[in-house]
Protein backbone atom coordinates (compact mmCIF):
# COMPACT_ATOMS: atom_id res chain seq x y z
CA UNK A 1 0.00 0.00 0.00
CA UNK A 2 2.81 2.41 0.95
CA UNK A 3 4.63 1.68 -2.32
CA UNK A 4 1.48 2.24 -4.40
CA UNK A 5 1.00 5.64 -2.77
CA UNK A 6 4.66 6.47 -3.43
CA UNK A 7 4.39 5.51 -7.11
CA UNK A 8 1.22 7.60 -7.43
CA UNK A 9 3.02 10.54 -5.85
CA UNK A 10 5.91 10.21 -8.30
CA UNK A 11 3.51 10.12 -11.25
CA UNK A 12 1.83 13.27 -9.97
CA UNK A 13 5.11 15.08 -9.35
CA UNK A 14 6.88 13.83 -12.47
CA UNK A 15 4.32 12.88 -15.16
CA UNK A 16 5.38 10.03 -17.41
CA UNK A 17 6.48 11.12 -20.89
CA UNK A 18 8.12 9.28 -23.77
CA UNK A 19 11.85 9.31 -23.09
CA UNK A 20 12.55 10.01 -26.78
CA UNK A 21 9.91 12.40 -28.11
CA UNK A 22 8.25 13.71 -24.95
CA UNK A 23 4.69 12.59 -25.72
CA UNK A 24 2.76 12.35 -22.46
CA UNK A 25 1.39 9.20 -20.86
CA UNK A 26 3.94 6.65 -22.10
CA UNK A 27 7.52 6.05 -20.97
CA UNK A 28 8.37 5.08 -24.55
CA UNK A 29 5.98 5.35 -27.47
CA UNK A 30 5.77 2.68 -30.16
CA UNK A 31 7.11 4.96 -32.90
CA UNK A 32 10.26 5.73 -30.91
CA UNK A 33 10.70 2.09 -29.89
CA UNK A 34 10.97 1.15 -33.57
CA UNK A 35 14.02 3.41 -33.81
CA UNK A 36 15.80 1.73 -30.90
CA UNK A 37 19.03 -0.12 -31.84
CA UNK A 38 19.15 -3.88 -31.42
CA UNK A 39 21.26 -5.33 -28.63
CA UNK A 40 24.80 -6.46 -29.29
CA UNK A 41 25.71 -10.12 -28.91
CA UNK A 42 25.89 -11.17 -25.26
CA UNK A 43 28.79 -13.56 -25.78
CA UNK A 44 26.65 -16.57 -24.82
CA UNK A 45 24.78 -18.83 -27.24
CA UNK A 46 22.04 -19.37 -24.65
CA UNK A 47 21.43 -15.69 -23.81
CA UNK A 48 20.14 -12.91 -26.05
CA UNK A 49 18.53 -9.49 -25.72
CA UNK A 50 16.25 -7.30 -27.79
CA UNK A 51 17.55 -3.75 -27.37
CA UNK A 52 20.73 -1.87 -26.56
CA UNK A 53 20.59 -0.67 -22.96
CA UNK A 54 22.88 2.31 -23.62
CA UNK A 55 20.20 3.85 -25.86
CA UNK A 56 18.78 6.52 -23.48
CA UNK A 57 15.05 6.02 -24.24
CA UNK A 58 15.34 2.27 -23.55
CA UNK A 59 17.22 2.89 -20.31
CA UNK A 60 14.68 5.49 -19.16
CA UNK A 61 11.69 3.29 -20.04
CA UNK A 62 13.14 0.35 -18.11
CA UNK A 63 13.82 2.66 -15.18
CA UNK A 64 10.18 3.80 -15.26
CA UNK A 65 9.04 0.17 -15.15
CA UNK A 66 11.50 -0.98 -12.50
CA UNK A 67 11.42 1.96 -10.10
CA UNK A 68 8.12 3.71 -10.79
CA UNK A 69 5.93 0.68 -11.46
CA UNK A 70 4.78 2.26 -14.71
CA UNK A 71 2.70 -0.27 -16.64
CA UNK A 72 3.25 1.15 -20.14
CA UNK A 73 6.85 -0.12 -20.60
CA UNK A 74 5.73 -3.62 -19.60
CA UNK A 75 3.07 -3.51 -22.31
CA UNK A 76 5.47 -2.18 -24.94
CA UNK A 77 8.34 -4.53 -24.11
CA UNK A 78 5.96 -7.45 -23.61
CA UNK A 79 4.63 -6.94 -27.12
CA UNK A 80 8.14 -6.83 -28.57
CA UNK A 81 9.13 -9.95 -26.66
CA UNK A 82 6.03 -11.85 -27.73
CA UNK A 83 6.64 -11.04 -31.40
CA UNK A 84 10.25 -12.19 -30.98
CA UNK A 85 9.15 -15.46 -29.37
CA UNK A 86 6.68 -16.21 -32.15
CA UNK A 87 9.31 -15.48 -34.80
CA UNK A 88 11.84 -17.82 -33.20
CA UNK A 89 9.53 -20.50 -31.79
CA UNK A 90 10.52 -23.12 -34.37
CA UNK A 91 14.26 -22.91 -33.78
CA UNK A 92 13.75 -22.89 -30.00
CA UNK A 93 12.26 -26.38 -30.07
CA UNK A 94 14.07 -27.83 -33.08
CA UNK A 95 17.50 -27.86 -31.46
CA UNK A 96 16.48 -29.61 -28.27
CA UNK A 97 15.48 -33.06 -27.06
CA UNK A 98 12.01 -31.85 -26.12
CA UNK A 99 9.06 -33.69 -27.72
CA UNK A 100 7.79 -31.87 -30.82
CA UNK A 101 4.40 -31.20 -29.25
CA UNK A 102 5.81 -29.95 -25.94
CA UNK A 103 4.86 -26.37 -25.15
CA UNK A 104 7.61 -23.83 -24.54
CA UNK A 105 7.49 -22.50 -20.97
CA UNK A 106 8.13 -18.81 -20.28
CA UNK A 107 9.25 -17.88 -16.75
CA UNK A 108 10.45 -14.61 -15.19
CA UNK A 109 13.67 -14.13 -13.28
CA UNK A 110 12.37 -14.19 -9.71
CA UNK A 111 13.07 -11.66 -6.98
CA UNK A 112 13.89 -12.65 -3.42
CA UNK A 113 11.01 -12.43 -0.96
CA UNK A 114 12.62 -9.42 0.67
CA UNK A 115 13.15 -7.55 -2.62
CA UNK A 116 9.62 -8.37 -3.79
CA UNK A 117 8.21 -7.10 -0.50
CA UNK A 118 10.20 -3.85 -0.78
CA UNK A 119 9.35 -3.17 -4.43
CA UNK A 120 5.85 -4.62 -4.44
CA UNK A 121 6.14 -6.23 -7.87
CA UNK A 122 8.48 -8.12 -10.19
CA UNK A 123 9.15 -6.17 -13.40
CA UNK A 124 9.97 -9.34 -15.37
CA UNK A 125 6.62 -10.83 -14.33
CA UNK A 126 4.85 -7.74 -15.64
CA UNK A 127 6.53 -8.18 -19.02
CA UNK A 128 5.51 -11.82 -19.40
CA UNK A 129 1.99 -11.00 -18.18
CA UNK A 130 1.65 -8.87 -21.29
CA UNK A 131 2.97 -11.75 -23.42
CA UNK A 132 0.37 -14.03 -21.85
CA UNK A 133 -2.40 -11.52 -22.59
CA UNK A 134 -1.37 -11.46 -26.25
CA UNK A 135 -1.05 -15.25 -26.53
CA UNK A 136 -4.62 -15.93 -27.66
CA UNK A 137 -3.64 -19.16 -29.44
CA UNK A 138 -1.89 -20.57 -26.34
CA UNK A 139 1.41 -20.96 -28.17
CA UNK A 140 3.32 -20.87 -24.88
CA UNK A 141 2.90 -21.74 -21.23
CA UNK A 142 3.55 -18.96 -18.72
CA UNK A 143 4.50 -19.73 -15.13
CA UNK A 144 5.88 -17.75 -12.21
CA UNK A 145 5.95 -20.61 -9.69
CA UNK A 146 8.74 -22.68 -11.25
CA UNK A 147 11.91 -20.71 -10.66
CA UNK A 148 12.55 -19.24 -7.22
CA UNK A 149 15.33 -17.27 -5.59
CA UNK A 150 16.65 -19.07 -2.54
CA UNK A 151 18.94 -16.43 -1.05
CA UNK A 152 19.23 -12.68 -0.78
CA UNK A 153 21.93 -11.14 -2.97
CA UNK A 154 23.26 -7.65 -3.50
CA UNK A 155 21.82 -5.95 -6.60
CA UNK A 156 23.93 -6.90 -9.61
CA UNK A 157 23.95 -3.27 -10.75
CA UNK A 158 25.83 -2.34 -7.58
CA UNK A 159 28.45 -5.05 -8.17
CA UNK A 160 30.82 -3.67 -10.82
CA UNK A 161 33.54 -6.33 -10.86
CA UNK A 162 32.71 -9.33 -13.09
CA UNK A 163 34.14 -12.02 -10.73
CA UNK A 164 32.18 -10.46 -7.88
CA UNK A 165 28.99 -10.51 -9.95
CA UNK A 166 29.47 -14.22 -10.61
CA UNK A 167 30.17 -14.93 -6.94
CA UNK A 168 27.26 -12.77 -5.80
CA UNK A 169 24.65 -14.65 -7.83
CA UNK A 170 26.10 -18.19 -7.73
CA UNK A 171 23.66 -20.89 -6.57
CA UNK A 172 20.84 -18.46 -5.78
CA UNK A 173 18.11 -20.08 -7.91
CA UNK A 174 16.19 -23.32 -7.50
CA UNK A 175 13.37 -25.04 -9.39
CA UNK A 176 10.32 -25.52 -7.19
CA UNK A 177 8.53 -27.96 -9.54
CA UNK A 178 11.11 -30.03 -11.49
CA UNK A 179 8.36 -32.20 -13.00
CA UNK A 180 7.00 -29.14 -14.85
CA UNK A 181 10.25 -28.50 -16.74
CA UNK A 182 11.44 -32.06 -17.35
CA UNK A 183 12.11 -32.53 -21.10
CA UNK A 184 10.67 -29.07 -21.83
CA UNK A 185 12.13 -25.95 -23.43
CA UNK A 186 12.17 -23.13 -20.87
CA UNK A 187 12.79 -19.45 -21.60
CA UNK A 188 13.81 -17.21 -18.70
CA UNK A 189 12.94 -13.53 -19.09
CA UNK A 190 14.82 -10.67 -17.43
CA UNK A 191 14.58 -6.93 -17.96
CA UNK A 192 18.32 -6.21 -18.22
CA UNK A 193 21.41 -8.38 -18.65
CA UNK A 194 24.95 -7.06 -18.38
CA UNK A 195 27.42 -9.90 -17.87
CA UNK A 196 24.72 -12.58 -18.20
CA UNK A 197 25.53 -13.97 -14.75
CA UNK A 198 21.94 -13.90 -13.48
CA UNK A 199 20.47 -15.59 -16.53
CA UNK A 200 23.25 -18.18 -16.63
CA UNK A 201 22.54 -19.18 -13.03
CA UNK A 202 18.84 -19.52 -13.81
CA UNK A 203 19.63 -21.59 -16.91
CA UNK A 204 21.90 -23.88 -14.89
CA UNK A 205 19.19 -24.46 -12.29
CA UNK A 206 16.64 -25.35 -14.97
CA UNK A 207 19.01 -27.70 -16.78
CA UNK A 208 19.88 -29.47 -13.53
CA UNK A 209 16.13 -29.90 -12.95
CA UNK A 210 15.79 -31.75 -16.27
CA UNK A 211 14.83 -29.09 -18.82
CA UNK A 212 15.53 -30.23 -22.38
CA UNK A 213 16.80 -26.75 -23.14
CA UNK A 214 16.93 -23.52 -21.17
CA UNK A 215 17.69 -20.12 -22.64
CA UNK A 216 17.60 -16.55 -21.38
CA UNK A 217 16.15 -13.49 -23.08
CA UNK A 218 16.49 -9.96 -21.72
CA UNK A 219 14.79 -6.83 -22.92
CA UNK A 220 18.07 -4.94 -22.96
CA UNK A 221 21.80 -5.58 -22.90
Overall description:
With 221 residues, the protein is an alpha/beta fold. It has one domain (37-220): Rossmann fold (3-Layer(aba) Sandwich), CATH 3.40.50. It has helices at 2-13, 30-33, 56-68, 71-94, 113-119, 123-134, 162-169, 178-181, 197-208; strands spanning 47-51, 104-108, 140-142, 147-149, 173-175, 185-192, 213-220. It has a 5-stranded parallel beta sheet with strand order 1-7-6-2-3, sandwiched between helices. The protein has a two-stranded antiparallel sheet with strand order 4-5. Residues 1-10 have low confidence and may be disordered.
Order of helices and strands: HHEHHEHHEEHEHEHE
Low-confidence stretches: 1-10
Biggest sheet record: 5 strands, parallel
What is the number of helices?
Answer: 9
How many domains, in number, for the residues? 1
CATH topology: Rossmann fold
Question: In a few lines, what is going on in this structure?
Answer:
The protein is of the alpha/beta class.
Amino acid sequence: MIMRVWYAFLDLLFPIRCAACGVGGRALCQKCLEKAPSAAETGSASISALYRYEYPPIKKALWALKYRNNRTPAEIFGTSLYEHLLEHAYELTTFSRAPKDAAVIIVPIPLSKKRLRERGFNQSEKIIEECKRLDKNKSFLFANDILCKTKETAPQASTKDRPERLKNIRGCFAVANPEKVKNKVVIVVDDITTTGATLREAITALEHAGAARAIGIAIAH
